[in-house]
Write a structure and sequence with these properties.
2 copies of one chain form a homodimer. The first copy, chain A, has 548 residues and is of the alpha/beta class. The first copy, chain A, has 19 helices and 21 strands. In chain A, strands 1, 2, 4, 5, 6, 7, 8, 9 and 10 form a 9-stranded mixed β-sheet that branches. An 8-stranded mixed β-sheet of chain A has the order 14-13-12-15-18-19-20-21. Chain A has a two-stranded antiparallel ribbon with strand order 3-11. Chain A is globular and about 75 Å long. At the A-B interface, helix 1, strand 6, helix 6, helix 7 and strand 13 of A face helix 1, strand 6, helix 6, helix 7 and strand 13 of B.
Chain lengths: 548, 548
């Protein structure tokens, strides 16, 4: 039996080494580098917390200042590669290997570094998939996380931006790892305990509050009539037809437009209470008018959104909140909710091919997936029926014993035929495949695979891929909504007309929608200021969204 | 803005009403009925904690003793229907509607009650799927949970059997619900904080410790040579061929036999370190010899197992343990790990049809699914490659752009051709379909669908369904391993031989396995007592497994 217990002993030794730079559990910002050099060891798996929203930025700066002679060859296992320091450490030799999920702003630099051999890539995951591996083969030895406040026992308040933290801490603390939390302030008593103190080894009082990106704020003022038209089609042609109540929205303007049309256009269609009642969604400011109009029953959130905290606090009837009154978000549970409890995922993408595969990867950027592939997939393990899900299943099923009928998740791509810079959204072949070849990825970075996507919405119409019976029909259905792109112009017009007669391709007029009605006056809010008004002054938009 | 905040106010009123029967948060066992009658309201969604392992049995008894005039028409949303009280409350009118996941011992009674109209069924879920709905449309108003101990502030120690508790509490406490915990004892200070006290409203000191079922203990003495032969085939023909490192096992004797052959048969094949290193698994006693022989790197657990606590405590190098030294299990994370981080699920079933659909439902029992459909499904949202997963993907993919190649999860059914009572495991049509028709289920209770299962192992051989290119090939591959069942005797012998030449059907001799070698002497442990010896006396089997 000797030989057992080494991992626990090694953990105790790290903590002992770290204690030299701490007072109890408390570490000053000035001592961060010394602490990290004391507790980290070469080849450690390290989770430096950061996703598409909050960042443990003080600890990121500290890590990037460590001496590469002492701290090197780390294996980073984390949701986001977002801050410059997240990549600096690879150039410095502090880190060597990377497993991650999301990279917005650093997508181009990651691609260059992968191509240059500066990063040994494990894989690009979805959030939930990476969390899963934290418990199996990518368990962190050290977690560097962020919270709002902590007491001297380490009890941690993560507040509205709880996000990934409980998951990261659980995987690390219960497998003999070391957990370091940066907090904005040390307090005598935290407003609520998001993480019990016996899972936190060190608390760093950061030099400034942790950074949060307002990623889910879409300014209604920037919404176009094309986006409004697409939103009308989605509401009438998909939400109403399938009776979609439980859903998740991506972050584009198309879905934000849907949110703003619920209390206006959808209300006139008599859909209140029939659609869009239960959400797995961040607190989108554009959902405020629907909430205030009584459309929304419940919202569970991955994270929070800058400026929404006071509003959420006063809307605990809708949001999940804690004993302190503020939001409790949880990315792992919300991703699980998006996977198994929602009937619809609708999001945007940059490229769609002729089979329906889509990707947000372009020739020079590895953006990462975030949550889209998880929520934009049909979970075969689902066993509860809903009318929405069964209707989609009936449309998809062509043969077989009807007693074995099952449902399908609705996975919708909503895109303008020409995206930003007039780049066509429809392509013969995804750039992702070329990029994968160039930088040596074993698996091409496809966001949603063709066999999961059920509908494509563009300004030209809706393609229902569930009803397609052959690859040829599928291709023509896609071409049939691809507008004036080269893909769209390459359509077989007669076949597209036949698909239209079968309801596989539907134009605005087929849905009883007059494109000229797609007017900005339909938006429940036409500006950020309108959203503030709707909220009764509770929504406090960040400065960059204010022009008053 | 008036009108908002009602949910929080209603919660506060319930707690106020409950306080009349409590001293602070503490409630005596004698006051449970009064407490429940005070806090529950008609039509409440209630989670009465209980899964396939631990049970909040004191609270279940209390609920069943409530006055149906005061507490009625509850909507039960819970993992397990296991105790008689779980169904008594439906007969009494205390509960009306049911959403659940698992029902071992009560499967026959549920079927009768559904048929008699005594239960309004929502759906039969997998665990993870029901957890997902806790955050969307099945959020509990009241959660009745079980822990080992609590302090007077409500800080809860759930210990080795943490299981579903953190998930249930998170969904309830953060959505203005009321949480009542039964504990074995009230203490001054809990050994570790599994749930912070600010999420727990009432603590009931139970009249006896909560019940735990030793569901994952398989006595090696009961293992047959047929099971050993199947285990040898699985190891050599699947584990070795695909290099499976990350995996989950079901609870049958077939998979327990695999565990016991790792340090013997698999070791002789030179597979140590090559297979079965990282697990999402309960602490199966039959895994002890493999752990002690250095085969296992890490195990994350759904729950604990009776008698394994001391052993786990001394093996924190392998298991997830807390600051107090004992196991930290977590069903939600382990199910997520099984879904997204494992390359293989292998389990048993009662019936397999000619397409490969399987079910544990028989004509008179609705057993529920537990976790099998979740782990026994190919997650389309997975984006990280492994050699195992990519090899399976290559075998399955027949057409299409090779640049779009992706992997497949291995989902294996291991069954004897004739099960208990010599009932054939292979059937023309699943009994589940008949039962669904009889009791009016919208969705037939299929455990694993044909499009997810990749291999079937019987004593006659292995059928590799990934390599089948037509429905006909698939049917003959299944018939080809179905032995002397009617399905097996109905095979096209010439075609099965052709499938054998293509490696789709493999006999023991094709794998270089001599059936006569399948001897009990291959088992690393041949009795429960042997397991105790392997554990150095740390494993303490429950009385029913002791014969010394």
């Amino acid at each position: 039996m000797s030989g057992w217990g080494r991992e626990r002993a090694a953990r105790d030794a790290r903590i002992e080494a770290g204690r030299a730079h701490a007072a109890g559990k408390i570490v000053t910002a000035a001592n961060v580098v010394a602490l990290l050099e004391a507790i980290l060891q070469p080849d450690d798996r390290v989770c430096l917390e950061g996703d598409n929203q909050k960042q443990a930025d003080c600890l990121a700066r500290g890590l990037s200042q460590c001496d590469p002679a002492r701290v090197h060859d780390l294996h980073m296992v984390q949701s986001g590669i977002v801050l410059p320091e997240h990549l600096d450490i690879f150039e410095q030799g502090i880190a060597r290997r990377l497993d991650y999920s999301y990279s917005g702003p650093q997508g181009a630099r990651i691609a260059r570094m992968l191509y240059g051999g500066h990063i040994e890539l494990g894989a690009v995951h979805t959030y939930l998939e990476l969390f899963a591996r934290y418990f199996v083969d990518l368990t962190p030895n050290v977690a560097l996380i962020a919270g709002v406040s902590a007491d001297r026992d380490g009890n941690l308040y993560t507040g509205p931006n709880t996000e990934d933290t409980p998951t990261v801490v659980e995987a690390t603390a219960f497998k003999n790892g070391v957990v370091v939390a940066q907090v904005n302030e040390i307090v005598d008593r935290v407003p609520r305990v998001d993480i019990p103190g016996d899972r936190i080894d060190f608390v760093v009082e950061a030099d400034r509050p942790f950074y949060v990106e307002p990623l889910f704020t879409r300014d209604p003022a920037a919404m176009t009539e094309t986006q409004i038209l697409m939103a009308m089609m989605a509401i009438k042609g998909i939400y109403a037809e399938y009776g979609i109540r439980r859903l998740n929205h991506g972050i584009g303007f198309g879905t934000a437009a849907i949110e703003l049309l619920l209390p206006t256009y959808a209300e006139r269609l008599g859909l209140k209470g029939q659609i869009a009642t239960h959400w797995a969604l961040n607190p989108h400011p554009t959902l405020i008018p629907a909430i205030e109009s009584g459309w929304v029953k419940q919202v569970h959130c991955f994270g929070s959104e800058v400026g929404m905290d006071r509003y959420i606090r006063e809307r605990s009837d809708i949001f999940f909140t804690g004993a302190d009154g503020s939001l409790r978000s949880n990315r792992a549970f919300c991703q699980t909710a998006g996977l198994y409890a929602c009937d619809l995922f609708i999001g945007s993408t940059l490229q769609i091919d002729l089979a329906g595969h889509s990707s947000t990867v372009t020739q020079n950027r590895v953006a990462g997936f975030g949550g889209a592939p998880n929520m934009g997939s049909d979970p075969h393990g689902r066993r509860h029926p809903s009318d929405t899900w069964m209707k989609a299943g009936r449309e998809a099923q062509v043969t077989g014993d009807p007693a074995l009928m099952r449902g399908r998740k609705l996975v919708v791509q909503i895109v303008e035929t020409f995206g930003e810079g007039l780049v066509p959204a429809f392509v013969e072949r995804l750039d992702a495949l070329e990029l994968a070849h160039k930088i040596g990825l074993e698996l091409a970075p496809v966001m949603v695979y063709a066999d999961d996507v059920t509908h494509i919405v563009t300004e030209e119409g809706i393609a229902n891929l569930l009803l397609c019976r052959t690859a040829d029909e599928r291709e023509q259905a896609i071409r049939g909504v691809a507008g004036y792109t080269e893909i769209g112009r390459g359509r077989d017009r007669a076949m597209v007309e036949r698909l239209r007669q079968r309801g596989i391709v539907r134009r605005p007029e087929d849905l009883g929608i007059e494109p000229l009605d797609a007017d900005r006056s339909l938006l429940a809010a036409r500006s950020i200021k309108d959203l503030v008004h709707w909220s009764g002054g509770l929504y406090e938009p960040p400065a960059k969204f204010r022009n008053w």
